[in-house]
TrEMBL record:
Keyword Lipid metabolism set for record: no
Topological relation to the membrane, as annotated: Multi-pass membrane protein
Pfam family membership, one: Cation_efflux
MF-aspect GO terms: monoatomic cation transmembrane transporter activity
Alphabetical list of Gene3D superfamilies matching this protein: Cation efflux protein transmembrane domain
Name of this protein: Cobalt transporter
Annotated InterPro entries: Cation_efflux_TM, Cation_efflux_TMD_sf
Cellular component, GO annotation: membrane
Amino acid sequence: MAGCCSHSTCDASAASPRFRQALWIALIVNAAMFLVEFVAGLAVGSVALWADALDFAGDAANYALSLTVLSWGLIWRARAALLKGVAMVLFGAVVMARALWAFQHGVTPEPITMGVVGILALLANAGVAMMLYRFRAGDANMRSVWLCSRNDAIGNLAVILAAAGVFGTGSALPDLVVALVMSGLALWSGLVIVAHARRDIGDARQVHQKG
């Protein structure tokens, strides 16, 4: 359970070789899928696919940041998580604005390629999420890593559903709706990460003052 991990235990778990190895794998997978989805999203005109690609890019940066702070103290890892939470909120706002723009100027995306890429992304993210599942109950930084991988898998499912909706209706509306949902998920998860990080920062400061 998240609340049952002491500061010393969380520190040891976060710096473990297994967690570091898992982060490296997640970083490589996310960077590769960003390139695939970004190119495909632009090629087929899918806002949802483009949004998912930006999510991959953000997560790759988050994993790189997490690898940097693994050996740091709790307060610095919490600050890194706070930065990641703010980035997720900004990502959600950007995607929402892009979807609203596409609603006025959008072109119906090509659903077959959109669906195939969505399935490929789902398989990649499902593997990453399963690999990171054991680390979900750590400190704010470890929780943020787990939330990122979970949100990616949910986003991939949404992209696949959007592709099916576009194929069945011939309308761009399913693509735009999914993009808006993904932006809302990013906003919510970002706020959750910020709240956890602020709590961990407060706890670390109390421990430091007592010491």
